[in-house]
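Lab meeting, action items carried over

1. Structure of the two-component assembly. Owner: GW. Status: complete.
Input record:
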Amino acid sequence: MPEILLEMKNIQKYFAGVHALDDVSISINAGEVHALVGENGAGKSTLMKILSGIYQKDGGSIIYKGQEVEISSPLEAQIMGITMIHQELNLMPHLTVAENIFIGREPTRGIFVDDTKSNQMAKELLDSLNIDIDPTVRVNTLSIAKQQMVEIAKALSFENTSLLIMDEPTAALTEGEIQDLFKMIRDLRAQGKSIIYISHRLEELPQIADRVTVLRDGQYIDTLNIEDATRQKIISMMVGREIYYDPKEKSNVPEDAPVILEVRNLVANNVKNVSFKLRKGEILGFAGLMGAGRTETMRAIFGADPLASGEIYMNGEKVEIKSPYDAVSHGISYLSEDRRAFGLAIGLSVKENAVMASIEEFSSTLFMDDKKIADVTNEYVEKLSVKTPSINQLVRNLSGGNQQKLVVAKWLIKDSEIFIFDEPTRGIDVGAKSEIYDLMEQLVNEGKSIIMISSEIPELLRMSDRIVVMCEGRITGELDISEATQEKIMSYATMNM
Amino acid sequence: MKPNNFSKSMGFQKILALGVLALLYIFFAIFGNNFFSWTYLVNILDASYFIGFMAIGVTFVIITGGIDLSLGTTMMCGALLGGAAYNIWGWGIAESLILVVVVATIIGIINGLLIAYLKLPPFIATLGTQMVGMGFGAIVTKVMTMRYPTVGTPDGFFKNIFYKTSTGFPVGAVWLAVAFIIASIVLNKTKFGRYTFAIGSNREAARLSGIKVQRWQALVYTLCGFFAGLAGIFYAAVYTSIIPSTGNGLEVLAIAGVVIGGTSMTGGVGSISGTIIGVFIMSILKQGLMSMGLQAHWQTFFTGIVVIGAVLLDNYRIAQAQKVKIKAD
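Predicted assembly:
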């Protein structure tokens, strides 16, 4: 019977009424690598943030080294010996490796920091971990992989560190670097340290993990020994939820519908050689896990970020899109996942936001036509049933669903042909969601075309006529709605090519 | 239409500013020497012209979330070059005055290019042009004081147009009022004004709405330079002598006036009507301290305090605005 290092029992967590973790229990043995998998929003990060003291649990208990503990801050977690290595590394880029490792507890001589000693201690530590890094170099001169190793070394410089949590540590690494990391993880396991390993890359797990725990929608599903955990089995556990919408059975778009937008060999930041077609009147779903490159693809098409190469055709003609201004002129609109940062000016009124993309059309050479602006805003507020006491209300006072509708109104007023919806229902309650769905259907019925990015597969199955799946910047699959299932989508979404 | 709490607090800010204006006037009327008089009222108006024109321009800049620290020396640089054209190069007074505005507008264009297209932070870019403008004016005039024609000389009529009529009517106030009205219309009724707010409220959302934010942002700084040029004409009309290597610090009078008037340093919020009130607070402060026999260094001292107070008030306002979040449904 292996020694149990940690048990989290019946953990509950709520965020503003959302049940993020529902009675989740997990147990970690000493000297094991325990993989934690699940879709976006399954609750992996939340659970780990509770364990590392960033969030506080709302219920349940944590038993660590045989004692029930309360972990109320990352510092407390660290003192207990629990450290989380985040995806965004927490190093100070302008300081040296040694300075980073010993920040806050620098060896001193009198009132001075003893750099010689600090460097020497860092060297010993790095050597003991077989990490070949000079402790006196600045961290920003190191590769991401090396920086990650520095962070691991820092965690292990606390003597009692016995549990490391790694959040997608291989996401930014090359194949060679991954093997180095795995070797290091195996060394740590041999020393009796435990590692919780969060990853979307299911094919890595047999190489590194001893057991796998699957979470789904904030609930514990099961824990398997790695020998029993086939890729197929894990995927079906990840997506095996009840489908709460009726999926669309077949595409509503005729085969010969004209192609309104075609993208060929698009290359941009985190976008690798992406090609696809959008037909008139179609809802084209984009599936994938976090970081799959869907948002980056759409931002590049919209001209919001520069594209390195690739061609965009509209109605068969090549177009140059260098800025959002060009995209809007061609009738493309982009509804960002982050409405507050990119979609709306929340300090301005409903009216001002509604016509922000189309003021030109409501202005004579000199003046805006206030009456016309008010009329058209009122018309669309009514048409989309945006709930606001007046069109002069500040947007910050609207609910998330109404803000989303307002963004749609903005692009309808601009008379766009193509709507790119990026996570259109994120942060919106159920009632408002179905209103957004109705709205999208209304748009395609009017002959508009839609690209819909969503991390909720059931939502994609309900809305899309066709689904494109991306993984790590590439398109890894394309499914007609009649053949699409949650399992197929998830299988493509975790397929590294 | 129900006004929400935020616009209420905007209104409150203006009422508060009006109250401060009245209190300051009463304070100096009691403690100042002869402050409560037609002479001093005219003095207050005189001082408000150049502050007012600068403040109009920089209101647009601050609404975009930017700042223009070059205002004061831009005004002086324009006035110095106009003076050089009149005194040294033998230009006519009309052409010289046009040059004042042209020079200042060019500095505004440079600010716009540096900030909108070359992505310099506004603070740094305009700190740079502040010094460039100050140095350039001194170089061109060989550090000689430039004098504009006085009333009675053949070209002195320009003072009758911009400063005081021959009957002593402070006609500058009429020009300032006209400028305020036009600026207010531009800010509230044109797409240029709307984009000014949009850029300050959420630059990225504006860009993703297909607005050419760089172009409009550059235009805002150009407009600010243009108004600094107008300020230069009125400064010359009121004070006659333009001394090289001065002007830095005067922008603070305008910026403080704008902020006191309720325009937020974080952008997206502001009004020309608030700026008017703020400008008069600043010019009353300036003349009032003088009427108490306190000279320039006292003005500098109190201006500094007023600026800090105004920005603190701005912070408080933002904090209040964020506290107030009513759900509309």
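2. GW to write a short summary for the group page. Key points so far: The radius of gyration of chain A is 26 Å. The interface with chain B takes residues 302, 304, 323-325, 327-329, 334, 336, 341-348, 352, 356-357, 359-360, 363, 366-368, 370, 387-390, 392-394, 396-399, 402, 410, 414 of chain A (CB under 8 Å).
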